[in-house]
Specification:
The complex is a heterodimer of chains A (274) and B (293).
Chain A (H helix, E strand, L loop, with lengths): L17 E10 L2 E11 L4 E5 L6 H8 L7 E6 L11 E4 L13 H10 L10 H13 L15 H13 L5 E5 L7 H18 L2 E5 L12 E6 L2 E5 L1 H4 L2 H8 L4 E4 L5 E4 L10
Parallel strand pairs in A: 3-7, 3-8, 5-6, 6-7
Antiparallel strand pairs in A: 1-2, 1-4, 8-9, 10-11
Chain B lengths: L1 H15 L1 H26 L3 H20 L4 H18 L8 H21 L5 H8 L7 H30 L1 H6 L4 H23 L5 H4 L1 H9 L3 H28 L8 H22 L12
Helix pairs in contact in B: 2-7, 2-9, 2-11, 2-12, 3-4, 3-5, 3-6, 3-9, 4-9, 6-9, 7-9, 11-12, 11-13, 12-13
Classes of the chains: A alpha/beta (274), B mainly alpha (293).
Chain lengths: 274, 293
């Protein structure tokens, strides 16, 4: 997939948005992964892949400033991660919202913009318009006045995406937005995220289980396994050599004629031949 | 015609009693506060926690009675301590049904012990358990005014963060909101609201002001601010109509005194049933427009 790169790329903006050098993360004494170095630029679509418990969400928590790095350095938008950075839109991993929640979607999206502010300004037209515009940007205008409780998984993901986008962030962190979606909705959502990445120059990191549906859109891959992290272009990371080095055992990466990959040799593989 | 005139004369007579005027005033303030805070209680699924506060408050009130103090101060002290303790348990503590149930059973037991040690009349425990809005003292009226203003002001200031934390806890936390502080503030607000609502409905019927109006309002409005206003209105109307019916019941035969809290619970319950019934019978498009995508 090709797309016109803007002139800003040559000015060096395509690197340095999220930079890690020899980063290690974990909880207390326990290191989850270490020696991670990466560099993501403006408008890049990055997949974060790896087995369950490898530390994919931990990476997000470090970037969000919710937990400190154990060692090494990391900078996001030019400064160390701080909790509550409004320039980062975040969609946590969620299964559902209580089906009894009878609050219209536009209200949730609006809170993405002003939920942290004190005071009482429930009738602000500006906030409401921004929320409606954000819902429109994710193709969910028709959901604006529906209660959150009746939405399907795919619809909810769109509303959460609108909530994350409403403050016009430079970075989007999406934690498993594809889980519980069928193939069609999965494809739709990926096209949507890709469109946002390309049109707004947002850098998106997306945690997923299966890399194949993402491959047509991706600029880079972060592969976390065995306490280590490999990053780079999909064609560099998704090779037998790279993944064998990562896992420390012989791993085969097979490709079918459509470009889908299958990773053989590890118990839990993350490329399913479609 | 005669009946209308008699009714008007009776209303005038009722308004002539200062205890009835106090009851309408205190009832209105407490109903509004309970209706407003109740919306967040329902949204956060913390109804059981709210009930626990009232029962821990009962132990406090009974202790206050035993020591010769004001029951309302004991209620406030007990429920606020309960609120701080549950908040200290941390995130998602409101869902710890088992622990909260264990503590509230013990609190009720303590309350019964204190009441039985108190050699005075048992009316005291009856009014705390089932409410006696006609019996509020001038001190309680003043205290209610101050507390209601404080609670409504705090909810107004914390409105958006509280709504955000209630609807979308994970994102709110990631955005750097002080969840522990917000949770604690909310618990204390509910504890205070519960303590005063006990004056109207009593410890055991607290749900009729803290939960039912908000649950009904939630079905009627999908916008939080609309639902909050509706919830407060339902609680207020139920309290006032309950007071009128209670007054009427004591004047028109049969003359047996019917507690006001019964009327309030009956009114909010019937309203809830009516709203749910209409929604169930209504065509499905009222719940949800046909999918276009």
């Amino acid at each position: 997939m090709t797309h016109p790169r803007s002139a800003s790329e040559t000015e060096g903006e395509t690197s340095g948005l999220i930079v890690a050098r020899d980063l290690a993360a974990g909880y207390g004494e326990k290191t989850v992964w270490q020696r991670a170095s990466f560099d993501f630029g403006r408008g890049e679509f990055v997949a974060v892949i790896g087995p369950n418990g490898a530390g994919k969400t931990t990476l997000f928590r470090v970037l969000l400033g919710l937990q400190p790095a154990l060692s090494g350095s990391v900078s996001i938008l030019g400064s160390p991660p701080t909790r509550g950075n409004p320039r980062i839109g975040y969609v946590p991993q969620r299964h559902s919202i209580d089906s009894e929640t009878n609050v219209e979607c536009v209200e949730l999206v609006r809170l993405g913009l002003s939920g942290r502010r004190l005071g009482f300004n429930p009738f602000s037209k500006r906030e409401r318009d921004a929320a409606l515009a954000s819902l429109e940007a994710v193709g969910a205008s028709d959901l604006a006045h529906l209660p959150l409780g009746v939405l399907s998984g795919g619809e909810l993901q769109r509303v959460f995406l609108a909530e994350a986008l409403v403050s016009d962030p430079g970075i989007l962190l999406l934690d498993e937005p594809l889980s519980n979606l069928d193939l069609k909705r999965e494809t739709d959502l990926l096209h949507l995220v890709n469109g946002i990445v390309r049109s707004r120059g947002v850098t998106a990191l997306l945690i997923a289980h299966n890399i194949n549906p993402l491959l047509p859109h991706l600029d880079k891959v972060v592969y976390i396994a065995n306490g280590k992290i490999a990053t780079g272009k999909p064609s560099e990371v998704l090779t037998s050599e790279c993944l064998s080095a990562l896992y420390g055992v012989q791993v085969e990466v097979l490709r079918d004629p459509h470009g889908n990959v299958a990773i053989i040799g590890v118990e839990e593989h993350h490329g399913d031949m479609a | 015609m005669n009946i209308v005139l008699t009714l008007l004369a009776d209303l005038q007579q009722m308004w002539g009693f200062s205890f009835m005027r106090n009851a309408f005033e205190v009832g209105a303030m407490n109903a509004i506060v309970a209706g407003v805070t109740g919306y967040f209680v329902v949204l956060r699924r913390s109804a059981f926690t709210a009930h626990a506060f009232s029962e821990i408050g009962f132990a406090g009130a009974a202790a206050a009675v035993l020591l010769g103090g004001q029951p309302i101060l004991g209620l406030l002290g007990g429920s606020t301590m309960g609120a701080l303790a549950i908040a200290a348990l941390g995130r998602r503590a409101t869902n710890r049904d088992t622990q909260i149930g264990i503590v509230l059973a013990f609190a009720l037991g303590l309350g019964i012990l204190f009441i039985s040690l108190y050699s005075g009349y048992a009316n005291e425990s009856y009014s705390i358990l089932f409410g006696e809005i006609e019996g509020v003292s001038p001190f309680e009226v003043e205290l209610t005014v101050v507390a209601s203003a404080l609670v409504l002001f705090t909810v107004g200031v914390l409105y958006r963060p509280l709504l955000f934390a209630s609807l979308d806890e994970d994102v709110a936390e990631a955005q750097g909101m002080p969840m522990m502080l917000l949770g604690t503030a909310f618990m204390v607000i509910v504890a205070v609201a519960v303590s005063f609502a006990v004056q109207v409905t009593g410890v055991l019927l607290i749900f009729s002001l803290m939960v039912t109006p908000a649950a009904t309002a939630q079905y009627l409005s999908r916008r939080p601010q609309g639902a909050i206003i509706l919830s407060a209105t339902i609680a207020l109307m139920a309290t006032w109509v309950g007071l009128l019916l209670g007054w009427a019941a004591s004047y028109y035969p049969p003359t047996a005194k019917v507690p006001i809290s019964f009327f309030i619970t009956a009114i909010v319950f019937c309203l809830y049933l009516a709203v749910r019934g209409i929604r169930l019978l209504a065509p499905r498009r009222l719940h949800r427009l046909p999918a276009t995508a």
